[in-house]
Specification:
This protein has 284 residues and is an all-alpha fold. It is 76% helix and 0% strand.
């Protein structure tokens, strides 16, 4: 009950404010025609890039939601949809700058560096996995494809909030369990090494946001903590994957490929952060 209440507080005060605003604004934006409204006389299909740009702005799991809606409306092919699921699952920029940079590490410059690294890795993923197919015509008319903004927002918040609370309970139960403490203390005594990095990494894989906080408050070196954090925020963790799959459903046939690509994106972000931070320190 304690972790349930704390998980609810975590969602309401850390995730809900920015997520609610982004959901409302993007639903209104999509109802008005999105970026395509600016290219009415064009014969090109901008839906793919529209969803990608929205995913950079709104963060996961909304990219998966927009991708699935675009495919169900007949605006993109299945090949584009499969590609888009891989490149449109990105962390929220406000979360990276404010929550990770300022709240977790107490340094806005760290937030900026992580944000830059995340954006660069997202565009690298776009280059690696972009699929181009002929223009499709939506199967739905504009009137029928319009959505109930508040109902859509409520349903999305409910699915996301429920998953976050469940994984908050799970990660804190594991982190504070005597069995976990015994296992890692036993490993440390047998191998004469500190396995705390493995512990925090596993917790972060389960739930990215709370896991990243535990990593930031650990006794590891700052560079190592930031490298792990960059991987976790780009991979998203099992919690984010579950949230994404709640929108994807059975539409995406090969979910293992999506997971593999998210692991690749996590490694790319960590590598890019090492390079970006080196350049930053070089000139400061």
């Amino acid at each position: 009950m304690k972790y349930t209440f704390e998980g609810l507080q975590f969602f309401l005060f850390k995730i809900f404010p920015s997520l609610f605003i982004f959901l409302i604004l993007t639903n209104i934006f999509m109802n008005l025609g999105g970026f395509s409204a600016f290219f009415k006389n064009s014969n090109k299909n901008f839906t793919y890039f529209q969803v990608f740009l929205l995913s950079l702005l709104c963060g996961y799991p909304l990219g998966s939601k927009f991708s699935t809606e675009a495919y169900n409306n007949g605006e993109i092919s299945y090949e584009e949809y499969e590609s888009l699921c891989s490149v449109s699952s990105n962390p929220n920029p406000i979360f990276l700058y404010s929550t990770v940079g300022i709240s977790f590490y107490g340094d806005k410059n760290i937030g900026i560096l992580i944000l830059i690294s995340s954006l660069i890795s997202s565009f690298i993923m776009l280059i690696l996995f972009y699929k181009k197919t002929p223009k499709l015509t939506s199967k739905l008319s504009q009137d029928k494809s319009s959505i109930n903004i508040f109902q859509n927002t409520f349903n999305s918040l409910l699915a996301i909030g429920f998953t976050i609370i469940i994984f908050y309970i799970l990660i804190n139960t594991l982190n504070n369990s005597k069995m976990i403490n015994f296992i890692f203390n036993f490993l440390a005594s047998v191998f004469q090494r500190d396995f705390s990095i493995l512990r925090y990494f596993i917790l972060g894989i389960l739930e990215m946001s709370n896991g990243s906080y535990l990593v930031s408050s650990s006794g590891l070196s700052l560079n190592l903590k930031l490298t792990i954090t960059c991987f976790l925020i780009s991979f998203g963790g099992i919690s984010i994957l579950v949230q994404s799959f709640s929108f994807i459903g059975d539409v995406l046939k090969d979910k293992k490929r999506l997971i593999r690509r998210k692991i690749i994106q996590g490694m790319i972000t960590s590598l890019v952060f090492i390079i970006v931070s080196f350049i930053y320190l070089r000139f400061n």
